[in-house]
Amino acid sequence: MMTTTLNETSTLVYERPHSLAACNTNYCPGCTHGVAHRLLAEAIDELGLRERTILVAPVGCSVFAYKYFNMDGCEAAHGRAPAMATGIKRVQPDKMVITYQGDGDLASIGMAEIVHAAARGENITTIFVNNAIYGMTGGQMAPTSLPGQKTTSSPFGRDTILTGYPVRMSELLSTLDGAAYIVRRSLHDIANIRKAKKAILTALKVQMNGMGFSMVELLSSCPTNWGLEPVEALHWIEHNMIPAFPLGDYKVIAEVRSL
Amino acid sequence: MAKEMLKGNIAIAEAAVRAGVEAYFGYPITPQTELLEHMSKRMIELQRVFLQAESEVAAINMVYGAACTGVRVMTSSSSPGFSLMQEGLSYIAGSDLPCVVVDVMRGGPGLGNILPSQGDYFQITRSAGHGDYHPIVLAPSSVQEAIDLTTLAFDLADQYRHIVIVAADGLIGQMMEPAELPPMQSVRTNRPDWALTGADGRQPNSIASFYLKAEEEEAFNQKIQNRLHEIRDAEQRFVEYYTDDCELLVVGYGSAGRIALSAVQTARDNGIKVGLFRPLTLWPFPEKRLSELTDMIGACLVVEMSAGQMIEDVRLATGGQIPVGFYGRMGGVIPMPDEILQAITTHCRQLKHGEGAFTPLERVNS
Amino acid sequence: MQTEFIFAGFGGQGIMFAGQVLAYAGMDAGLESTWIPSYGPEMRGGTAHCCVVLADRPIGSPVVRNPQVAVVFNNPSFEKYESNVTTGGLLVYNSSLITLSPTRDTVEFLPVPASAIADELGSMRLTNMVMLGAAISSRPVLDLEDIKHALEEHLPAHRRDLLQANFKALERGMECAVKPVLTR
């Protein structure tokens, strides 16, 4: 953690959350993984959970998340973070267990694990970063890629005749009785970032209160693989992703509303 | 405790319970399902963790998660399910974590059948997943051994922070025979210092199998290899019968080993100088003792319920100094004592013809 | 000494339990003893069988291909095991249900009207013990008392009220075995 020396006339308005490790990340300029990390770290700090949280990192761009957070963490096999988190949570129900997963990890190879964790009402929290592309492997088509979206494995644009349609995970998981809190937020501007933070706080409180499975889906940018400038990428979220993945609360059980 | 008639699958489950297993994750598959069913009752009664996973893939990754917290954890499956676990096993190996996996082997490849087989020898001893490692593999030949080796499995897993596989087959899993269970051990309350228990008052722990730099990955691999070397030195286990004066040494493990013992006993009754070498550890393979025995015998006859997999380890251990013959049945067919006796007789006759006259039998009985 | 038994019939005829009682009795009498069922899909409704081996030295295979004694409860099992019984072996069959006739002359046959006897004793569930009684008296590896003791120890709690009836069924089975028949 950075140390800050303040004199009598200055006020601390911004610092690295204690839950974020003091290290550089491998994320590209303009990528919103950094924002997502910070929001999660702030929420953990504010709820005083760092010392009893275990973070499960995915395979994907955020593969090193277990190093970027200043807390106990581990690295799951591709898509298996919900299963690994289940193992951790079942033997230590008093700990907070969080998975941090991308769209290839969660919605493609890990579809079975996330669906069944939600169906069991596994008392874990998932931060689902959806940027409609495989980032780590260099921009291939993801299960959430939009129709017509050009990627390195759909160079002519995603052809729905050949490859079908994007999977809307929040909507899908919201049909399961074990899910307590499923919402979709976006990281493309300040107002939405604030809403995302609030949702993450709620999701963690859902777990603290043993209410069942919670997930916050965050629409996120990938300027590098989308071939856009960072600001253009934020606009792309707004104009292209949000119409396909509408923001909103997909499952909020009554007990959560009273939190 | 007195002997009781116990079914292999249930004996293994109860031995694990008594060894203090804190969490079990599994998926139904014949012929190991009674193991999972026993756990579903006992673990809940004892307020420990039992969870039926959505797949073997999920089950092994749940094991991976629970192993990160430093508890005694296990899963069980049978051949096709074990194949699905290879991914998780490799991650567990790459993270230096202890766990116990039971494979009650059945006929394959593919869906195969539910009958006893030893066709998983390669997949469980060579690596059980991608990358350079070997699990420790224990092979019981009776219900009593299944109990004893399951207990040992947890101790070895903890001692070496390593995967230990109990390799049984449908015969051991399904049969009942008299056996004695050990007393109940209490569940450990302390957690190792590397466990993920929350970074309260200490630096964070992280568990991963990820090394981007080749040199770092190589250094980690070297650490695994050093440990494997230590295990190879210390943990080779076997049982031998009539080896004082034998000319032909039968080598077989698990069910094939116990059936071969019947044949060897009958051969001895008939005055044939034959012995039996039964590996209890398939990895590390008991090569040291077998190598010593090589100097005293004329030939080996390997008996397996497969097309011949362990035979490769026998050939390595005997170093080409003696002929190594084979008798095996595949696809869930159990070799009967009289078939093995016939193979013994034929091999001994060939041995008597003197050096050079030995021609290994057909690899597999047709 | 090693004696191998197969019990075979429809699921629900008490095949598995009859074998288990014999295996328990063997263990209690200080013998090596194994029991193994046929398992998997064939358990559900079709024919089921189990093998029991009793011996005075370690048992190799618990699975038996050519038993010395086959105890069969229905026609399909009779058909299958008549040819499998080892030469000089014994086939005990439930003559109340089995309509087939013996064809081999190298095997002893013992017809037991087990279902009829069980019915007479008040419960068709006793058929298996009638058959077991007949089987052990024809191959006296164990005493009736060993079997009774095993039953006493291992009869499930909810069937306890049938203990005396089970004893009676064993005895009636033994009586049937006074003179095994050598056919043809």
Textual characterization of the structure:
The complex is a heterotrimer of chains A (259), B (366) and C (184). With 259 residues, chain A is α/β, with parallel strands linked by helices. Chain A has eleven helices and seven strands. The model of chain A has no long low-confidence stretch (mean pLDDT 96). Chain B is of the alpha/beta class. Chain B has two domains: 4-234, Rossmann fold (3-Layer(aba) Sandwich), CATH 3.40.50.970; 240-352, Rossmann fold (3-Layer(aba) Sandwich). In chain B, the strands form three sheets. In chain B, strands 3-2-4-5-7-6-13 form a seven-stranded mixed β-sheet, sandwiched between helices. Chain B has a five-stranded mixed β-sheet with strand order 10-12-11-14-15, sandwiched between helices. In chain B, β14, α12 and β15 (324-328) form a beta-alpha-beta unit. In chain B, α1 runs parallel beside α2 (33-45), α3 packs parallel to α5 and α10 (254-269) packs across α13. The radius of gyration of chain B is 21 Å and the shape is globular. A six-stranded mixed β-sheet of chain C has the order 2-3-1-4-5-6, with helices on both faces. In chain C, β4, α2 (75-82) and β5 form a beta-alpha-beta unit. The longest helix of chain C has 14 residues, at 15-28. The two termini of chain C are 29 Å apart. The chains are: A alpha/beta (259), B alpha/beta (366), C alpha/beta (184). Chains in contact: A-B, B-C. The A-B interface holds A 21, 50-54, 56-57, 63-64, 66-67, 69-77, 80, 83-92, 95, 112-113, 115-116 and B 22-23, 25, 49, 51, 53-55, 57-59, 61-69, 71, 73, 87-88, 91, 95, 196-201, 204-210.
Q: Write down the overall geometry of chain B.
A: globular
Order of helices and strands of chain A: HEHEHEHHEHHEHEHHEH
Low-confidence stretches of chain A: none
Query: What characteristic shape of chain A results from the CA principal axes?
Result: globular
Major sheet strand order of chain B: 3-2-4-5-7-6-13
Name the CATH superfamily classification of the largest domain in chain B. Answer: Thiamin diphosphate (ThDP)-binding fold, Pyr/PP domains
Q: CA-to-CA gap between the ends of chain A?
A: 31 Å
Q: Please report the first level of CATH classification, the CATH class of the largest domain in chain B.
A: Alpha Beta
Report, as a whole number of angstroms, the end-to-end distance of chain B: 46 Å
Counted up, domains of chain B total 2
Radius of gyration of chain B: 21 Å
Q: Strand order across the biggest sheet of chain A? A: 2-1-3-4-6-5-7
What is the CATH topology descriptor of chain A? Rossmann fold
Number of helices of chain B: 13
What's the helical proportion of residues of chain B? 40-55%
CATH architectural designation of chain A: 3-Layer(aba) Sandwich
Order of helices and strands of chain B: EHEHEHEHHEHEHEHEEHEEHEEHEHEH
**Level of helix content of chain A?**
25-40%
CATH overall fold name of the largest domain in chain B: Rossmann fold
- The chain-level structural class of chain A is alpha/beta
